[in-house]
Amino acid sequence: INDWGLFHSDITYDVLPVIEGAFFPSKDYLNRFMYSMESLRLNPYMARYEIAAALHSMVAQSRLSHSYVTLACNRWDSKVPVPH
Questions:
Q1: 75: helix, coil or strand?
Q2: What is the CA radius of gyration of the chain?
Q3: What's the pLDDT score for residue 36?
Q4: What is the pLDDT of residues 12-51, one digit of tens each?
Q5: How far apart are CA 42 and CA 44, in angstroms?
Q6: Helix or strand or coil: residue 58?
Q7: Is 0.70 surpassed by the pTM of this model?
């Protein structure tokens, strides 16, 4: 693994339940996830509405009515040096 965010746990995540094909309650989870990213100065390179749209699209395409979706954002723009 040469991703700095994963290697050093410079990451935040949240898990959203999908119940009867819908997130429950997605607004609260997204608020917490956005706050966590802001607090850690992590940039998802997506606006909140883009994250929400991607989540809804993935769940709709999966056709899973009862599941969990993990949101994760890490500081992926820095690479751990790999010796040659």
A1: coil
A2: 15
A3: 94
A4: 999 999 998 888 777 888 999 999 999 999 999 999 999 9
A5: 6
A6: helix
A7: yes
Q: 1 and 56 in contact (C-beta within 8 Å)?
A: no
Q: How far is the C-alpha of 1 from the C-alpha of 65, rounded, in Å? A: 33
- At residue 80, the pLDDT reads 54
Distance of CA 44 to the CA centre of its chain: 8
pLDDT digits (tens, 9 = 90+) for 51-65: 999 998 999 999 989
Please give the structure tokens belonging to residue 53: 């749209």
Token pair for 76: 């992926």
DSSP letter, residue 64 = -
Helical H segments across the chain, by residue range: 4-7, 26-39, 48-62
Name the helix (H) or strand (E) containing 70: strand 66-74
Task: Return d(Cα 77, Cα 24) in angstroms, integer.
Answer: 31
Residue type at 19? I
